[in-house]
Each structure stands twice: as C-alpha cells, then as structure tokens.
Structures
1.
Amino acid sequence: MDAVAGGLEKIELFSGLPAEALREIESTARWLTFDAEQQVFDKSTDSLDVYFVVSGSVRILGHAQGEREVALANVLAGNYFGELAAIDRKERSARVVAIEPSLLAALAGPAFVDIMMRYPVISLRVMERFARIIRALDNRVTDLSTLSEVQRVYVELVRLTQPDPRRLGGWHIPDMPNHKEIASWAGTSREAVAQAIGELGRAGILERRSMNMVVHDWAKLQMMARQS
C-alpha cells in the first residue's frame, strides 16, 4: 500500500516533529490493513518492525497457566507497539491481533532506532511508555497470581462499570463484552465467566438488559472483587 500522506501526524510519539521529518518517515514505512481478528504477528517471530496504529485498534496477547491466552493491552489509534523487539533485537514476546479493521504503518526496527538516536525527545517518550507498561504489567501479574478465577472476573467487571446517565446514582456496563473477551482479560475460561456472571445475576447484583448490564449493587460488586 502506498504511503498515506499525513498518516503519522496522528501518532502521539511523533508529536512536535518537523513536517519534513514526518514525511521522510512516512516514505520509508509500509502501510498495512488488517481485518478484525486478523493476526499482525505471533509470539516468537523474528520480525523487528515497529507498528503505528493510524486507525482502528489491536490487542496484545500473552499466555498464563500454560497455553491460555491473556489480554495484556489494547493499542488504540494514535499509539504504537512492537518497539521492544526493535530495541533488543530479540523474538516477539506476545501475539498481536486486530480488534477491528485497522490501518497500520510498519517501520523497520533499525530505522526506528535511528529515529530515537536522532530525536532525543522520541527516546524519552519511549522510556516513559516502558515505565507505564511495567507498572501496568506489575498489577496484572499480581492479579493473575493472587486472585482466584472468579475474583478476576469480578475485577474485570468493576473495571468495565461506568456511571449510568439514565439513572441518578446508577451504574452499568454499556455494550457488555462477550464471555470470550472478558475471559481473555481475566485470564480464565468462558465457562468460568458465565458461571460468575450467572451467580451475580441470581444474587440480584447484575441484570442484563439488551446489550447493557445494569449493576444494581455497585458497592457489593466492588467488595466481592476485593475479597481474598
């Protein structure tokens, strides 16, 4: 696919770079489209490319408890991924799939490292990103290693819950994800998710209404997620 003029202007990492520098980077990038659920790359592949999400979004997947896949992060438009392999020149440590139809720009690993050397502000932003990732993964590892499967489902439901604008003081989960997606984030099975949500429904804590999940007892759900 030909270069998309101005496509990298949407990437936060390159914010503030001179226009001519962005045009140069765009001219060397490969532009790729992916359908929903299509794999971008697999774990242990030796590609060193760095990918920039111009539109759409992708999910980074790792493994826990043997071969069970666990969602580590979603990368939304304006962000990037794959820089670890470019920097240390090792195999990929995770699998990446598109969540929805997505347009990505792929930059060769050596070219990305060269950009970091030429523009110190880019290097600093990459290091800041590493710091955020490490902190987030520390929390994920703690949850996966110390919480039961049911608790991890509760924690994910708490994360998804938002104030309900239709009910004063109410809470809900808009566009409730399917059991497979929740299981991926919670590091468990779809059956465990179905069982946990079913029990919450029978207890009157949750109630499904079309695509939304109404949370009738927000305090109780939070307490159950914290219980050891």
Note: The first strand starts at residue 30 and ends at 34.
2.
Amino acid sequence: TRALGGARVGGEWVPRAIDELPALCALAARARGRTVVVDAAELRVKESDRVRELCRILRAFGVPCEELADGLEVEGVEGPLRACRVDSGGDHRLAMTAALLGLVADGPCRVDDVACIATSFPRFVGTLRALGADLTVDDG
C-alpha cells in the first residue's frame, strides 16, 4: 500500500470542496509530511471559525498545526494519535472530523455535541460501524 503524503491545497479546487476540507485535515493528520491549505478564508465564516476550531481539535489529538489567515498547515503524525475529549461546538463537520481522528487514537476518545451530525450525514455513525469502526453514541 502507498502511504499518504502531505500536499498543498488551494486555488480553484478549494471553493468546490470547502465543506470537505475538515475531513481532508483528518487525512493530513496521518499523512507523511506537511499539508498546507490556502485560499480557504471561507472556512472562518462557516458554522464556526473552522480554521481556529480545526486547529484546536487537531492539537487535542497531538497533531501539530498552525492557523493561516486563509487556511492552515497540518503536520502529519506517525503512529497513533493522542486519545482525548473534544467538543464539536455544534459544528457537524468538526464533529465528524473529530470522530474520524478518534478512530486512530491510542485509546478511547469522546466527542461532545454530536447531534449536529444529522444536519449533513444522519447515517454517519452507522456507516462507520458498517466499515468496522467501534463507535458509541451517548445521548446523555
């Protein structure tokens, strides 16, 4: 198999995939090298400031990252990520990204405020379980 490698993402590709960039950052956390996302200032005015919040979540998992005015830089981590507890802040894209990061952590993780996932992908948990993920949703 071929390992993921860091990349530079920007230009005309970004507006077409603006909602997928948080998931791309989860992949970047596992890629070899640095991934740089630019031309994505729109991320700062979505349901949350996704640049700031993505960096907060990535850092909680032990992934080095830096905010840019119009994007972020993510340094891939070799080996498991750090188990942690994070809050999605009610942002469905961030909740799903944090859940994906938790799948490769060194222990159990908790993502708070996940009901928002139903906004864009109501079958997210079921889909991940069907792929073999061990996920539990705690309603309380």
Note: The longest strand covers residues 71-75.
